[in-house]
Structures are given as structure tokens and as C-alpha cells.
Amino acid sequence: MSRIGRKPIPVPAGVEIDIKGSRVQVKGPKGQLSREMHPEIKIELVDGEIVVSRPSDDKRHRALHGLTRTLISNMIEGVTNGFTKELEINGVGYRASKQGNKLVLQVGYSHPVEIEPRDGVEIEVPAPTRITVRGIDKEAVGAVAADIRFVRPPEPYLGKGIRYANERIRRKAGKAGRVSD
What we know:
It contains two helices and 13 strands. By secondary structure, it is an alpha+beta fold. It has two domains: 9-80, Ribosomal protein L6 (Outer Surface Protein A, domain 3), CATH 3.90.930.12; 83-164, Ribosomal protein L6 (Outer Surface Protein A, domain 3, Alpha-Beta Complex). The strands form four sheets. The chain has a four-stranded antiparallel beta sheet with strand order 11-12-7-13, with helices on one face. A three-stranded antiparallel beta sheet has the order 1-6-5, covered by helices on one side. A three-stranded antiparallel beta sheet has the order 2-3-4, with helices on one face. The longest helix is centred in the middle third of the chain and has 22 residues, at 59-80. It is elongated and about 65 Å long. It starts with 8 loop residues before the first strand and ends in a 17-residue tail after the last strand.
């Protein structure tokens, strides 16, 4: 049995769960999320905990079991605490700023790059070289952060570009130069 899938999900105080068939709706202090789960996976609310079960030990059902439990857990975590991704900009003259709701990046191109966040995701620029992406939907926060990083991924020689705050860049040695005989 899936070790992740069989763990019950505790429902914290202040969070409302509504399960209708395979649709799960979670309301909390930060907002509400709704998601359609796979219809073959059974989701129940028992004694203030959500229990996810599968119909058989088929490989597909085992995979969906852990996935469903994790998705519901992330929804509950999102409406109670929210999710955050931090990015850092490294490079001479590289910087970020906010204009209204848009993020404006100047990262070595001939033009500034503007990024519009998705609904439910907000972008903050606490410093010109730091970007914070916040929201209640883990998937949307990660996607916006990945879109920002994609504008100028970090390169391995000088480390210039946009990277996640906890990301380590494997550096390569530059040209060794000509060795004399």
C-alpha cells in the first residue's frame, strides 16, 4: 500500500472541506480551492480527517492514490499558510521592478520583459535582485516562478541569470588557455 496515500490528512480548525463525488472544495482563511480528482479514487471525511483509498492494487491506482492524497494535502496547506517561491537575479545590470501588477525584468535583452501573473498569484520585488512569488495554489505559484526563471536561466560559466533562491548552479571551468610545449 502507498505509504503516502494511506496517511490520513488532518483538517485544521477554520478549514471547510466539501466532497461531492470526485470534486474536492477546500475553504480556508486565505481563500478557496477546488479540484476534480480521479473518479476511481475514493475520498472520505472521517472524524475530522480526510481518508483516501483506492479500489485495487493496480499500478495505475497505486500511483493515483499517493497523487490524490498529496493534491488534497497541498490544497489544505495553501488555504491555511499559502506557498512562496523566491528567485534571485545575478548579473551586471540585471534587475526586476514592478509596474502595477506586472513584473518587468531587465536581464540583458534589448528590451524589458514583462510578465503578467496568473489569477491568485502575486509577485513582489523586495529588492531589485530578488523576486517573491506568493499564492494559495502550489501548482500556479510554481508555474509562475518557472516562467520567470525561463526568461534568463542561469548559465554555468559565470552564474548569470535568474535562479531559485535555494538552487545550486553547477559551475564549469572556462577556457583553459593554450598550454605551451
